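Hi L.,

You mentioned the student needs an example of a multi-chain input paired with its predicted structure. This one should do, with 524 residues in total across all chains.
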Amino acid sequence: MPDRDYDVVVIGAGPAGLAAACRAAECGRRVALLDDNPHPGGQIWRNPAGKAPKQAARWLAAAKQHAVEFIPGACVFDAPEPRRIAVEMFDGECRLGYGSLILATGARERFLPFPGWTLPNVTGAGGLQALAKSGVPVAGRRVVIAGSGPLLLAVACFLRTHGADVRLVAEQASPSALLRFGMQLARHPAKLRQALEFFGTRYLTSCWPVSAQGVERVESVTLRRGARTWTEPCDYLACGFGLIPNIELAQLLGCRTAAGGVPVDEYQQTSVQGVYAAGEVTGIGGVELSTVEGEIAGYAAGGNTARATALFPARRQHRRFAAALETAFALRDELRGLPLPGTLVCRCEDVTMERVRACANWREAKLHTRCGMGPCQGRVCGGAIEFLLGWQPESVRPPVFPARIGSIAR
Amino acid sequence: MGNRRPRHETASSPKGASRPTWGSAADQGVRPTTDFLTLSVNGAPVTVPAGASVSAAIALAGVTLYRRSVNGEPRAPLCGMGICFECSVTIDGRAHCRSCQVVCQPGMEVRTDA
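Structure written out for the whole complex:
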């Protein structure tokens, strides 16, 4: 693909990115929308073998109408000069210039290491849903879902609908925390309904996995709840301990970042002029908040501040939900004891917990153990170590994603 | 759209990805696809619904081991969304491809580290 220039480049085609691209294009800007995935929609609107949800269809139609240019399978790995990014595709690479950049890079799951978590068929919670949506068969499979957050319920509903035998959902949060959250939910009927629809499968609070067993793949999971420990047979163990924002590109671009997300001003602009951020990358808040943040960023990048300002009250309302979410599903201290000394923390380089713990900080761990130095570049172990040891991710260096030599050296 | 070229000509379409147009993605909401295609996983043919990922083809072929870790442990997809690289396989001779991010094409040759 040849190098090109756009008024606005949006990275990430989930709810925030789609909304941002549509609104900027509506303002008459020439817009490119990039995503690492082969289809638009992000994780939440990922179409399961041909079924895009209604909200997604609305934005997809708007994107088409306003001639947003979608570039799928595009992995942004560097920002070699101001207002220019380097992008790699399956069969090539290119440089894209921009007037404004909107980061809608979303979030990933937080994984916590426990004995057996590296076995095949131990996946993320959202991870198993994503795999199922891409065609991995789950019908008839025995699934245990564990971890934390409302995503577990959504995944349980999805997998049941697709014929999986969902044995139980283990939520680490306490019932009292969830009760407080439930009261917040009453103001958000759509979310409440989703929680109620789930009514049916065992949903255990204050419960978490302590180990997974199996030889070539997972065969069972051992769960703990209070003083009780027991083993459940399963074909899949889907575990996610909440979400963490994908801030690596923002770091690369020199934006101020924090562990909880990329700080932005009222128009969703980061600390770097002309670089905006919207959606989960600014803090975990759900699809409604992501969409409205995307709209604000898109209008702001498109120069229509009046339209952007009109959406501030909606954003404020959704932010209250985000705050309630964070309190209710805060991870309990006991989970810091999940990895045993010999449990792998870094799956890319096979580095154990005891080797990481022997280091004073991230830098030392990287230099002495290669923890976080493999292909995922700390995207998996980073979230775990942040929770387990309190280490914040360090600055990033290009390429922020593994890239071919030919893409880097040109 | 006016005199602009159709979206599928301007958007880059890697061999590994289907050619998504805004239209097709939206259409799929009402008309589930019934097309199938055949590719090979470790030399054995496997037929998958059009649009399935290479991860799906590997699972449908009955393979649960995608790669071996540096210490020789069996590994398979963790994140399902292109972050973890545990699903890396060789596609048409190209090593280290994330199978969860690549859409199956007819005749594709997929090799796991099994």
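You could point out the following to them. DSSP finds three helices and seven strands in chain B. The mean pLDDT of chain B is 78.

Best wishes,
N.
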